[in-house]
Amino acid sequence: MRSAEETTDQSAQRLPAEVWVLVVASFVIAIGFGILAPALPSYAASFDVGVTAASIVISAFAFMRLAFAPVSGRLVTRFGERPIYLIGILIVALSTGACAFADSYWQLLLFRALGGTGSTMFTVSAVALLVRLSPPHLRGRASGLWGTGFLLGNVIGPIFGGVLVSISLKLPFLGYAAALVLAAFVAWLFLRRSTLAAPVKDDGPVLTVREALKHRAYVASLASSFANGWAVFGVRVSLIPLFVSAVLLQQPSMAGWAMTVFAVGNAAMLLLAGWLADRQGRKPLVLIGLVISAIGTIWVGFTTSVPMFLASCLVAGLGAGLLNPPQNAAVADVIGNRGRGGPVLAGFQMTADVGAIIGPLVAGAIAETISYQAAFAVTGLLSLLAALVWLAAPETLPSKVEQAEKSAAESNRGVAVAAECGCLDEGPEVPLGTRVAGKPRQPEA
């Protein structure tokens, strides 16, 4: 038979079931987003507008995510993660479904922008739930699982999206809306009676952004989040297709292969990075991830053949996969398990969104006026600068020493309580020899 200690130890190594619910929901949401991705630019252009106007529809979603992030953080703190998570998903579902029935370009722009508000609501609340539900020694693995679910959904989604686009440009919007409703139902069904996921009735102080900025690990996380948003969500999406056509002289489909190779490298590292971050610490993994990401990104700009180009994309994907779980876990460590750090999480998300918006503009201007090599080099250097910021940051993973100190403190509190209730014999002698004051009298063997 297993001892009680073995059973307790195994339970301590398992993630709560609620975390798996969030992982499944993120996977379903990502599939829907992948379904929509191939259709959105063409659908916007179908309203007889130019490339710039069609691009604004895509940018409006990102801009509203950025603008509404502080509000989302306050809503999470005020009403709790679970209701804001479900409401956010349903807002995106309704706005996406409405896009399929838009009668004009302006209606499409409005509906898509509204979706950005819901997107930041469920993203901030989902991360806040992960922070609160995951034990400190499992936060890296929880973040890795959540990221893997979202990434795999993004890889699978476009396959279905391509089929739906061939039938009708409206079908991907309806497919995404259906996926969101399904995700909301799954989350509601399995979280509605969860005591762990229930809103915390805590009148304690909220961790503000100003307070978090005093922690060097949070400042370093903002720096790496900005660099990652710039490189992964900005430059990779905007410059890679242009680089493929202008420099490598390849068909646009090669850009799709590059995205796939990057995603493979990313997915290969996420779970491993989360596991290592929970064992070796957050800081080493973040530093390694930033350096590898920088090397891969800079290498992209200097490739002249398809094999080298794909290899550089793979390296960049490996670096991004190593970076994200420990980076997210570090922010969670700063907040702690009290789950009242909505504005802090929103600020962390905003830096990535800012990088994703500014990155394509700056890197695109550099590529146009100087060269693609310079554009990718600047992008990679940002990751190296973020690594320098991390060098000055402390490790946030609770160490064995801290855990031992915590156990000792709890033991001392137990002794104090026992002394107050008269459970301790404070006499000077015991039958077994020298007596240590404050210790219970032991019988002779």
Q: What are the salient characteristics of this protein?
A:
single chain, 445 residues, mainly alpha, Growth Hormone, Chain: A, 16 helices, disordered N terminus, transport, transmembrane helix, MFS family permease, transmembrane transporter activity
User: Biggest sheet: strands side by side, in what order?
Assistant: 1-2
Q: Mind telling me the C-alpha Rg? A: 25 Å
Structure classification: mainly alpha
Distance between the termini: 28 Å
> Given this structure, which CATH class of the largest domain is correct?
Mainly Alpha
CATH superfamily of the largest domain, by name, is MFS general substrate transporter like domains
Give the count of helical stretches. 16
Helix content: over 70%
CATH architecture of the largest domain: Up-down Bundle
**What is CATH's topology name of the largest domain?**
Growth Hormone, Chain: A
Work out the strand percent.
Answer: under 5%
Q: Are there runs of 5+ residues with pLDDT below 50, and where?
A: 1-11, 423-445
Summed up, the domain count is 3
Instruction: Name the overall outline.
Output: globular
